[in-house]
């Protein structure tokens, strides 16, 4: 297992990890200068299955996407942080999930303390399991991984239902259980972010969802508050949704090409997807 993510986290400031949800978004993000990528569960379930992020995707659905995305990210020398939901069941399932995600090439897995079926962290109706059950999940995850460079991210969704005190209490327990990175989901003010940043000496995740419950700050601000990873999971698929809505609406209106909508250059898109390598291969192996 590569130590790329560990090395990136050792650098000053907060590491920005954009949400990627398919191989097109991955390739575009990888060429944009980031040092890590985040496989968003919401976006991946939506793009792969056309379903809401509500516990409907299985371990098999997700681990196959992890493998494909981690392999593509490795082409660019980038680590992939992957959403592992609740571990897809009990302790035995968590162990199976850890083995699968690590073998698939993820640099880190995010596990959360929601009840199954889980829901997206910035949507209503979430409930959490007892903290002691999540402690056991973290211990199993740490014991199961084969390489210490495969990092365990412990996330709590307790803030929305039980308040920040309970979320911080849980984070302390998950940290003691061996989690490498701590993640309090959906704090609701800058003051809450400040308090979280002051409460722990392990790397902290801030989840920046446009339109979500948490104030959206930039990486410099988050780094100053004590956070080490700034996730922007929804930016990509929200941008794609807006762009496709504009393009397809214009196409339907005109009953033809959406000529007045910004489009990616076809030539550049061919290059992005690797057609130059195909053409070079064919040139080298052409007969005659």
UniProtKB/TrEMBL annotation:
InterPro entries from the UniProt entry: ICL/PEPM (IPR039556), Pyrv/PenolPyrv_kinase-like_dom (IPR015813), Pyrv_kinase-like_dom_sf (IPR040442)
Highest taxon listed in the record's lineage: Bacteria
A UniProt-annotated Pfam family: PEP_mutase
Gene Ontology molecular functions: oxo-acid-lyase activity
Protein's name in the database: Carboxyvinyl-carboxyphosphonate phosphorylmutase
Organism expressing this protein natively: Skermanella stibiiresistens SB22
């Amino acid at each position: 297992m590569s130590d790329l993510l560990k090395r990136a986290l050792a650098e000053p400031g907060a590491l920005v990890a954009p949400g990627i949800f398919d191989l097109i978004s991955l390739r575009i993000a990888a060429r944009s200068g980031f040092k890590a990528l985040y496989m968003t569960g919401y976006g991946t379930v939506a793009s792969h299955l056309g379903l809401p992020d509500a516990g409907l995707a299985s371990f098999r659905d997700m681990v196959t996407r992890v493998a494909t995305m981690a392999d593509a990210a490795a082409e660019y020398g980038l680590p992939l942080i992957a959403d592992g939901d609740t571990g897809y069941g009990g302790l035995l399932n968590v162990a199976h999930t850890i083995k699968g995600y690590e073998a698939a090439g993820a640099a880190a897995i995010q596990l959360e303390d929601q009840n199954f079926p889980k829901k997206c962290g910035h949507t209503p109706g979430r409930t959490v399991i007892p903290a002691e059950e999540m402690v056991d999940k973290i211990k199993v995850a740490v014991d199961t991984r084969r390489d210490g460079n495969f990092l365990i991210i412990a996330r709590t969704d307790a803030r929305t239902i039980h308040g920040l005190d309970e979320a911080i209490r849980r984070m302390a327990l998950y940290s003691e259980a061996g989690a490498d990175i701590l993640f309090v989901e959906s704090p609701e003010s800058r003051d809450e972010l400040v308090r979280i940043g002051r409460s722990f000496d392990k790397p902290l995740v801030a989840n920046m969802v446009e339109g979500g419950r948490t104030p959206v700050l930039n990486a410099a601000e988050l780094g100053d508050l004590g956070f080490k990873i700034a996730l922007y999971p929804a930016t990509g698929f929200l941008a794609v949704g807006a762009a496709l809505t504009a393009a397809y609406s214009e196409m339907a209106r005109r009953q033809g090409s959406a000529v007045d909508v910004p489009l990616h250059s076809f030539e550049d898109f061919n290059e992005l997807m690797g057609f130059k390598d195909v053409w070079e291969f064919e040139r080298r192996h052409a007969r005659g």
